[in-house]
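ok so dumb question maybe but i'm new to this and my supervisor (M.) told me to 'just get the structure for Inositol monophosphatase family protein' and walked off. so i did the thing. is this what she meant?? sequence i used:
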Amino acid sequence: MSNDALPSLDFFLSLVEAASFITLPKFRTRLAADAKVKPGVKFDPVTDADREAEIAIREIIKSAYPDHSILGEEFGTTGVGPIQWVIDPIDGTKPYLCGIPVWGTLIGVTVDGRATRGIMSQPYTGEFFWGDQSEAFSESARGRSTLRTSNVSALSEAICHTTSPEPFTRRSGRGFAKLSSAVKFTRYGGECYAFAMLAAGQIDLCVEPSMQPYDIVPLIPIIESAGGIVTRFDGGRAERGGKVLASANRALHEAALEMLNDGC
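this is what came out, is it supposed to look like this??
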């Protein structure tokens, strides 16, 4: 299938704009949140903003592309076919609830299971990050910037990120602890924004032990087209989620995978 047959950036922008009409007015309003059941997680929140934004995105997609399948965090999978939209209306609901602008709306498209294009929109800061199979860039009030991952190849010089240390403390494997000790430093709490910063060359490694497809599919084209690598810990494609590592380059990725798989 040619790229010309796939949805355009302008269409993606219409989707994230529709979501922002819902998410932005509710941001920093001390929203109530329900708890979803997730094994091993004390509190996995969902808000009306999550649900309403996904509904808005779905309605636009179904109107324009009725034959496409849709996978969303809040309402599961509808439709079948080789082209599937993958949606996380608010990736980072916890920081959204805390008033911290590292959440984002994630929308991606897979063709025959492979991520082909994706967007991460952060409407509060007024920026988005885009990737397809030919380019990756960010755009904000300051203009458009090409995304390029860093050339850091030594773990000792690498900046590592994971959203929370909690998933690693619940596991007996020592791989992440070993990696965290080897890198320059490790930071926490950046959610999808950290992956965007990896594509922008600000972060060198993003490690997440429990991702869903809607957490990672929209980010894969952004990172890969910026020069980065995204796989599961076993080295396979990351579209189906699981234990995921994103790295600035191949050398760093291989070194980090070796440590992560030590004792996992």
